[in-house]
Amino acid sequence: MATNRTFTMLKPDAVEKGHIGAILEKITAAGFKIVAMKLTQMSKSDAETFYAIHSERPFFGELVQYMTRGPIVAAVLEKDNAVEDFRTLIGATNPADAAEGTIRKLYATSMGENAVHGSDSDANAAIESAFHFAGREIF
Ligand code: CMP
């Protein structure tokens, strides 16, 4: 996958609260093009695999339970400098530290329930996109 792409999930808390439309509006207004998108729900084993890097962390069980409790919106986004620019748009992992106007400042409630995911590198963007989408679903 090209390095001008990143992967995102609108997490269960954001979907439950009806924020899908508002968050997608922020994303597209910031210049990101949606090249793949679906409403889906992760199984326990999906979440354990997706977040395997955090498996030794004390919050892992809580994270898996949260990410599997309801539907998410998974999407692949395209823009120059996508990974870094998207992480700027969403703000710090902890919404208390997130800059004004960022998606997490507006819609996240806590470090755990932080509304949105953004890949942290081009390599992980490719891995995470391939986890959720078949090649023919990415445009
Ligand atoms: P994200 O950065 O998208 O991916 C890892 C997730 O783990 C992170 O969002 C949070 O949802 C969660 N997380 C990270 N740190 C903590 C923490 N200290 N306590 C609870 N959840 C956390």
Please tag this protein with its features.
7 helices; Alpha-Beta Plaits; 4-stranded antiparallel sheet; binds adenosine-3',5'-cyclic-monophosphate; alpha+beta; single chain; 139 residues; globular; 4 strands
How is this structure best described in words?
- It is a single chain.
- This protein is of the alpha+beta class.
- Helix content is 40%, strand content 17%.
- A 4-stranded antiparallel β-sheet has the order 2-3-1-4.
- The protein starts with a strand and ends in a 7-residue tail after the last helix.
- Adenosine-3',5'-cyclic-monophosphate (CMP) binds next to α4.
Strand order of the largest sheet: 2-3-1-4
Structural class estimated from helices and strands: alpha+beta
Given as residue ranges, the uncertain stretches (5+ residues, pLDDT < 50) are none
Number of E-state strands? 4
Query: Helical region count?
Result: 7
**Beta-strand level of the residues, as a percent range?**
15-25%
The tally of structural domains comes to 1
How do the helices and strands follow one another from N- to C-terminus? EHHEHHEHHEH
- Terminus-to-terminus distance: 11 Å
**Cofactors, ions and other ligands in the entry:** adenosine-3',5'-cyclic-monophosphate
**pLDDT averaged over residues:** 97
* Name of the CATH first level: Alpha Beta
Q: Which homologous superfamily in CATH is the superfamily?
A: Nucleoside diphosphate kinase-like domain
Shape: globular
Largest sheet: 4 strands, antiparallel
| Rg (C-alpha, Å) | 14 Å
